Structure formats: C-alpha cells, structure tokens
Amino acid sequence: MPDTPCQTFQYGIWIFDVTVAEQLIAATGHRPIVLLDVPMWAPAYGLDRDDPSAVPLLGPGDSFDRAYAITTDLSRPLVLATVPTGDGASGHLLIDGCHRLFHAWSTGRPT
Q1: How far apart are CA 5 and CA 48, in angstroms?
Q2: Is 79 in contact with 65 (CB distance < 8 Å)?
Q3: Which of 8, 67, 71, 81 has its CA 20 to 30 A from that of 88?
C-alpha cells in the first residue's frame, strides 16, 4: 500500500507539516481543545467572499471548492499551530481545516 502523501501548509517563510502534527497528536493522545469563534475566523480567512477572483492575504485561493467544503466532516477537528506574535506572546494559525471552517461558517455550526 503506498504511503499517504505528506500534507503541508505554508505561511510566509513557515512550512507546517500537518501530517507530522496529526501523528504527534495521535501518539501522545493529547489534543488541546480550542473552541474557535467561527464568525470571526471565517472572514479573517476570506471565506465570506463571493467573488472568486478576490484573493485574501490569508486563506484559500481561487481553487477553493465550496461545494466540496460543504461535504467535509465537522466532527474532525481543525489543526491550529501556535506561533509567536512578536510581542513575546503567541497566537494561533489554522494549518488544517479551512474547508471545515467554511462548512461550519456557512451552516452556522461551531467547530
């Protein structure tokens, strides 16, 4: 059976290995639960735009498939990375689950 291809997420100079993140979570059995403010996060990722030619600074590009997004499994958690914010604190960056975020936002459900 072929290996599953590595899934990554790039943001600026950072490249996050989503496959390894999920393996680490599975190996440790530890998945911190962060309830996302879906109505705030979806627009931040440009998911509220109807214009397919609009490219947000953060989030999916013009190949984002909204029809597919509605079929995604909302019981599967999103994966957030903890990143430095520059002031000594840290924040969250969505590295896996943009389709699920759109699904939750468009149907008014939490994730």
Answers
A1: 30
A2: no
A3: 8
